[in-house]
C-alpha cells in the first residue's frame, strides 16, 4: 500500500470550493481542505511576531553586553545581532517546514501545513524554492521603505508598496489560494484538523484478532498506517475491499479467512502496536521505503 497520491487534484461540482480530492493507487479517496487566505495571513503574522520577539530578545542581550562594558566597541554585539537577523529572515520558515510536520509554529496554531500539489512527498527543493521567493515577495520590498528621505527614495518606497501589494493579494485571485512561491514550488497550504483515534481501534485488547508475523508488519510504515486509518474512517465498501486485497497480496497472507473490514482493523491494530513498540527504542519508520 502506497501513500503517494499520484492522481491530479480535482474539485467536484457538489463540493465546497476549498475541498480538493486525491485518489491513491489503492483507490483511497482523500479530501484535502485548502487553507483560507485569512488563515494563512494569521499564521504569517504569528510567525512574524515570533521572529520579532526573538530579535527583540537578542537586541536586549546585545545592549546588556554593551552596558556591562565588557566590549570596547560595537563589533561583537553588532555581529551577533546582524547574524541573528540574517538567520531569522532567511531560515526561520525553511527550517520549520523541513520538519516532518511541514509547518511553522504559526501554521500549526492555525491548523495548517505545507503539502505538495501533486500529492507526493514534499521535498527540500520545493521548501527552499517557496521560501526563497518569500524574500522577493515580502522582505525585499520591506527594506525598500527604509531607503532614505530624498525624493528618489520616496519613489523606491512607493514601488516597494506596490510590489508588496501585488504579491500580498495574489492568493485572492486564484482558486487554490497560492502564493507566487507556491506556484513556482508546486506546493499549497492545506488544513488538517486533528481527529481522535477511532474508539474501537484505540481500545481493542492486545492479542485479539489474527497473529501477523514481524516480517508482515515490516511491509509498511507510519505513512501507510495513516492512509489505512483514513480507509477505516471512511468505511467505503469498495475501497475497504480493494485495500484489504492489496495488503493480503503484499504480505502473502495465508492465515484465517476474515471479512475485509475485520482484516483491515486487525492489521491496523497490529501495525500500530509494532510501530509504537519500535518508537520506544528510538526507531521510526516513516514509510515502506524507509529501511
Helix count equals 11
Compressed to H and E, one letter per element, the order equals: EEHHHEHHHEHHHHH
Radius of gyration: 25 Å
Indicate the percent of residues in helices. Answer: 55-70%
* Strand portion: 5-15%
Spatial gap, N to C terminus? 16 Å
Number of domains: 2
* Major sheet summary line: 4 strands, antiparallel
Quick recap of the structure?
Helix content is 56%, strand content 7%. By secondary structure, the chain is α+β, with helices and mostly antiparallel strands. A four-stranded antiparallel beta sheet has the order 1-2-4-3.
Describe this structure in words.
This protein is of the alpha+beta class and 291 residues long. The protein folds into two domains: 155 residues, no CATH class; 82 residues, no CATH class. The protein has eleven helices and four strands, in the order E-E-H-H-H-E-H-H-H-E-H-H-H-H-H. Helix 1 runs antiparallel to helix 2. The longest helix is centred in the first third of the chain and has 31 residues. The N terminus and C terminus are likely disordered.
